[in-house]
Amino acid sequence: MKQGSSDYKLLTGLFFRLLPFQVLLIVINAVNGIVDSLYASNVIGKTAMSAIGLFGPLNHFLYAASIMFVSGSQILYGRYLARNREQIHGLFTVNLLISAGLSLLTSVILVTGVLTNATCILVSQEPDLKMLNQYILGQAIGIPALVIGQQLFAFLSLENQTRRTMIASIACFAVNAVLDHLFVVTFSMGTFGLGLSTSIASWTFLAVLSVWYLTGRSEWKFSFRKCRWKDAPQIVRLGYPGALSRFVEMFRCLIVNGLVLKYVGSVGLSAFAASNSLLAVIWAVPFGMVAVSRMLFSISIGEEDRRSLIDTLKIAMTKGMMVMCVIVALLILLAEPLTQLFYRDQTDPVYMMTVMGFRILPLCMPPAMLSLHFAGYTQTIEKKAMSIILPVIDGMVGVVLFSFLLIPLMKMNGLYVSNVLNGVLCAAVIVTGAWLSLKRCPRTLEDLMAIPEDFGATEEKRIDITVRNMEEVVSVSRQVMDFCGKRGIDSRRTYLAGLCLEEMAGNVIAHGFTKDQKKHSVDIRVVHSGNEIILRIRDNCRAFNPTEYAATMEMDDLGRNVGIHLVLKMASRISYQNLLGMNVLTMRI
To answer: What is the pLDDT of residues 311-359, one digit of tens each?
Structure first.
């Protein structure tokens, strides 16, 4: 039996179990971008690649809007889950309505911009302008499906419907790949065909995800009657710091594109678009980690679980960082083979510009891991100043500042180096922020987090225990009773706390551990809060709701399940929820 970081291994397993599905969503979008880029560069020509690069700022805006709604909703989800689950129906409804409204408005504005030729502010020369307009028209058809689909994906992940999200993602990729070839090669539809294939793929993605909700099997239902319009400003308020980096990246792209065109030419945009399209697949890994961390952050904050909050960031910054460093090393080694996917003429200037992109740009990923996760953490815990300052510096200020200095001197290499220096600047900002908050130099990861002192239960007010077998269950009762005695809890409630935990932890090991061949553990957390003893049992076994089971027990079952029956009578309040595939049972005495 282990005390201290009791749920660290449980969280680690959960982190890496959820990660592939979050990465998959981003990877599919990135792979679709690579497929588009391959057809653009090899079939249509370098001018088509410039069109894809020029559309980049608009893509950043759409992704930012989607992330704002997702992250804001996830934070509220974590709070409602711990306090009032029924409010999640209204949250789900208003999320879809505001997402649909913004995405439809964006499509209308883009089409209007093409029809009025307002897009000439992005590029004025032909044939670049024509190809950009065609690409925008093709993409505009699928924008509502793209944004709404990402919202459904997030809610399905919270319901642990990972298989359906995987099927939807694979279907999206397959449709886009087939239609790219059909529209571009067979029907010669140019950049409009590229955009249209992506739009149809997005609608396919949305259709697969929607089936779960249309059949009525989802836990959260779309309901105008339960719609919580007051959640809309809350979603934006809580979500915009997470999207701020993407919003300002739109302006960063416009500025950087202008600098590249001025000092390098359109060939520089083609090189940058090629390297970025492939690296977007790799960026799915840190962005996927951030998505998982944000979910775990929001739940930890909703439960006021200080230890899990720290452990989540520690997992990302140790095991997650190791994964990223290995990936970065492989990218640098494979720079030339990756370049040859797009350009094969080694005498063409675009070839070496792309090679250097693959050699330098990956170096910004490890420091970006730090800034992205801290931005997600400060957003979720509502550290307002840092949750705004860090995304603005990371998303625009750092890269633009260094680009103005280095692109005139180093051309494309200057842009690549600027991205690396941006990561170093963000790390310095994080350390400085913690230093100012603590009034001393931060020495540990926990110091860098600068968690408010009044957040969650302090160490003297809680006890954390991990149980892995039935032999350890026997001593749990004594440890909990000793803890309650030291906290001055009366003898009756002290006895009940020990008995409840022994009964329920033993039930998990006796029945949950034997359902499969996987390794399991039970995380026990006891908190003395006010006049209450809060007992939480968390495990990674198959879903089992003891309160529902007790409600359906036949009279003959009562004798065989006396433990559950007694606990339900002894606890003043008991609640169960399945969070991201984990059973979480909370009892109050």
So the answer is: 899 999 999 999 999 999 999 999 999 999 888 888 888 899 999 999 9
Residue 515, judged by CB atoms within 10 A of its CB (0-12, 13-18, 19+), counts as: exposed
Cα distances from 305 to residues 42, 296, 308, 539, in angstroms, run: 53, 10, 6, 16
- H/E stretch holding 549 reads helix 546-552
Residue 580 sits in which domain range?
A: 459-588
Minimal CA–CA distance to 397: which of 429, 430, 379, 422? 422
* 508 and 427 in a common domain: no
Do residues 324 and 435 both lie within one domain? yes
Same domain as 27, residue 121:
yes
Name residue, tokens 């130099």. 441
- What's the domain count of the chain? 2
pLDDT digits (tens, 9 = 90+) for 225-283: 888 888 999 898 888 887 777 778 778 888 998 899 889 988 888 888 888 878 888 88
Residue type, 352: M
Sequence-distant (≥ 6) Cβ neighbours of residue 541 within 8 angstroms: 508, 512, 513, 515, 520, 583
Tell me if 523 sits within 8 A of 509, measured CB to CB. Answer: no
pTM: 0.75
